[in-house]
Protein 1
Amino acid sequence: MGIAGYTGILIMVAVAAAFGGVVVLLSRLIGKRQESREKLMPYECGIDPTGNARRRFSIKFYITAMLFIIFDIEAVFLYPWAVVYRSLKIFGFIEMVVFVGILLIGFLYVWKKGALEWGSKSI
Amino acid sequence: MGLVEIGIVLIKAVVVFACMLLCVAYLTWLERKVLGHMQVRCGPLRVGWHGLLQPIADGIKLLFKEDIVVSSANTFIYILSPMIVTGAAFAAIAVVPFGDQIEILGKKIALNIADVDIGVLYIFALSSLSVYGITLAGWSSNSKYALLGGLRSAAQMISYELPMGLSIIGVLMLSGSLRPVDIVESQDVWYIVKQPIGFLIFLICGFAECNRNPFDLPEAENELVAGFHVEYSSMKFALFFMAEYAHMIVLSALVATLFLGGWRGPVLPGVVWFMLKVFALLFFFVWVRATYPRFRYDQLMKFGWKVLFPVSLLNILVTGLGMVLWG
């Protein structure tokens, strides 16, 4: 289809973005506004919020994000392989078994280390 | 590409967008109605015949509500993030084909907005983009609940994106293309028959990606009040809401395209078949919400990483072996 197909995507993204902008602007203009100090405080079950929300959070989220990047790159490598798989035949199959096998060893290591555990057993 | 072609694309984009908005609005009605009847209630009944005008009333109400920007929030990101989420959710529909080519005034018109070779990849790219919107919304609100909701949401969505991306590789191997139209046309037998495991994994991950029950932890009402959008009001809140439903529609459309033969079917025209499949899937989304309780967070992550991820790899292996052995 070439580059011409992407015009549609550009137009669709523009329409969607414009919709978001217009709607937010509209509610800003016609919604009534009556602000007070209490109303503009972050919600914390009705009491005055204590401290800042931007504090340290669990390292687990960070580890999850790192693992995601590693294995998502694996998935991205699989995409072009999958598209031409029919013409690669048995050669392509063995190649991919080796590639995924190496990454699986890493996955098993991560599993044994406890990086996938949440709660009391987690690292 | 001439002006006429661009005009046609523009008309298609606006029509599809309007249809999506209408679908989103009435999906909320459908959900409340179906949930109601499943719990032996009536659901919305007052506004219009059987509550049919309820979504419109809700929309107008939200538009007139007070628009609050929390004083300690990071204003620019706070306003931007609902737009990112909505934009990503709505723009993803661009590559999904609704039907075969039709002829209007002697011009052949393809029933999708953009016919690109990497269509499936494009949808995945956009659906990952909404993770940014949600995380930024949680962070920029500068509220503890919102931050926790945003973090949970990000971790959940990226964890389930992985098996989701892997689960469709079987389909890509069979069809040999990333272009949605090619994938639909190669399905003489629906891929759900050849790829049942891939279909199941994709569907489960879809629920997690949309933050739907049983994976709606990011917005778990009784522990995080509302998760990442707790500080949002008025139309900004509505944008998150609409994005969630739009995401559901895009996902159903994708499942229909990849696994259920897209627009193909006997007797009825293609668009009707496509809509039937999409709405059957949307009904399934609501049905699951009425049936299952919520996962615990550690169960959710364990299930994603220790079950779905290995199983989806195994699925690729079996598909590859099968194709080598039986062509």
Protein 2
Amino acid sequence: MEKKLLFKIFTIAIALWGFNSSAFAQYFPKTALGFNVGTQGVGIEGKTAIGGRFDARLGVDIIPINNITSTQYLGENETRIDIAPRFSNVHLIGDWRPFEFNPNNTLSGNFKLSAGVAYFIKSQGTANIALAHDYQYGDITIPESEIGVVTASAKWSHFAPYAGLGLDNIPVFNNFLIGFDMGAYYMSSPSASITGTNFLADNSSNQPRLQSNLNSYKFMPVFQVNFNFIIK
Amino acid sequence: MKKVLNYSLIPVIALLLIVSVITIRCKKPTDGLSITVNTSTLFHYTALVQVVDNSGRVPSGLSVEVTGPDAAAVYGLDGKKALTAPGGIIVAAIHPKMEPTASHTLSFNLAITGDNYLPLIVPVTIAVDQPTQTIKLPILNLTVQTAGVASASKTAAAVNGVVTTTTTVTTANIPGDPSKTSITLPAGTQLQDANGNVISASSVKASVNTFAPSSAIDLFPGGQLASSNIVNEQGNVTSAVFLPAGFANIDMTAGGVAVKKFSSPITISMTLDPSFKDPKTGNTIAVGTALAIYSYSTDTGQWKFEQNGTVTAGAGGTLVLSFQTTHLTEYMAGATLDLLTKFTINIAAPWYVKGTATNIKVSAAIPNGPSYNIFDQTFQLDSLLKFVLDGKLPVPAAGSSIVFTFKSIDDVVLGTATLSASATSIDVTLTPPQQKPSVTLALSLDCRDAKQNAIIVAPDFYLLYKPAGAPAANYTVLGQVQNGNITTNQLDATTPYDFKAIFNSHSKEVLNHTIANDNTVGNSTVGYTSFNGKVVPERNKVDIKALCESLP
């Protein structure tokens, strides 16, 4: 799912770039306000020039997804998994445009390298796992609603450094610019836990495996489109 | 365009690749996770019935049928409706949606039958504060000699279902006891089946078993003296506790059909226990004493008043009760007392550690009554510290009493209590039994051969034990294994034991196994309960892999 989203964003970016490339001009707003959409969620962001080819951005993001439900076999039992991602952050990021604007190379002045830090107000995902069907024990049927729930959760650290690059200040029409960011927050490995209730209470033995599976989830990839309005 | 690729697009693509690699190399969070359902806590009420063959043989080929008002609530520990009795062990578990309440005690019967065994109907009641109970009782093996029981059989000639010669069958002597039963089948008696149809056979085989109440009271029909299914003299169903001075079983078969009725009465003479005292009067029976005669149906488990009889003098100074009947079944002659329908023994045992399997033997006797105990059962202490005996005991007769004795599994008396009048409870303080070190047995099932998952926690099941090599009848319930563990202080770390795990139709024996109570390995303890020594479950594992096959 994540990979599909990345592909879509990339496709949109290429399309927009192709449409506007001939009309690029050099825009360096002193202050801009905008919103963004991407893998890190949706958010608002203010940007200001701090001298030379340096900008600073301050913004907030939130992933506005409530729950994602799917079914799959975990061991011998078919389960219904209800995932609730909860991510929101306040970030401060500095951008540096390494190249001077070159009329012969329309994107050269828009390319930027970015670095910063975010404080994640929420940085956790919770999955409620229940059996997809009633459970048959001999001749006794235990209703699905009474079997219990396994709650698996992963919590990441609140502070995360960011590094990335992108294209910025691409004019679309008067005072409206778009840009693209690609990078990642380094979240460090999450802390995983798993607990169960009722007849699923004994599933905490899965915790080491869950922790192992999540150890590689150290980065939050960022592919985002920025829409900025020039204030001055 | 070429310049654009050189300066901007290449790093963009590079970053895309890096991030894609980061994403792709991540494992799926659910990889290798296995959600298991532990039904260990499914059943909150269970009853274990251990049927033993007093000859020392392991009962085999027994069938179990559940009857009675709450039969629908009864399941096996494996959740199957059909109950089985491997090695004579039957575990009845109550469906979690049909559990007893404060106003409704569950009641059902286990009808146990088997080739060459006298049918046995075990009434079971489960009250709301009676989560577990064990009932141990014998079933009469008709093919071997059993202590306290004498048998005899004879074949009489018949023509078209009519006996041609008056035939008398008398049981042999029971060593040290005068109990004896004699039946006389007069010539001309027509043999009939249960529906009154004439059995057209050329012979009839009559078999008689007589029981000495003083030594074989545990073979009393139904396995207990109390019954709530009695048709009294007025024809009403009532309840009572029987105190037999004698009881006997009579069977006849003609042409392969069970004879249940006769066209004319046959005579039954029972030689009684001369030491029997009627607790209502305190008098020992003598010539002229009036006793009630009841019959018992092995098909329905119902008792029925037949008649009153008078004790007469028999040969050699014995006491005999003779009566006539036109139907066959089991008979008892003696006294009855009113049933104590609600009765609980409250235990004070400050030494008891919650979660430790501790069995207490409870017996009850009437000092000025019969010589035998009127109640014998082993209870397992639990956190409720209550023994529920609803419908098991009589109301003490005026001027009489019931004395309870409480013993450890090693037969050491831990306390006594006396009930002198009708009451719903008594209190007793028990002294601590012999303190053996507490050990935990780990009984996780190694199911790698039978199931995809390897080692799993078994559903709750009962574990029995006996000294290694002792007869199978010596198996005693150690306790209920919950979540794969049982902690007990009833085992000796230096003694080898035979263990037997029962899971409905499946059982597994582990023979000659010595448990460990290792005080030499550091100070670390393992397990949820620890006192008086170290708990070393990793050294107490008992392989019960055979049970895996029955897991759902």
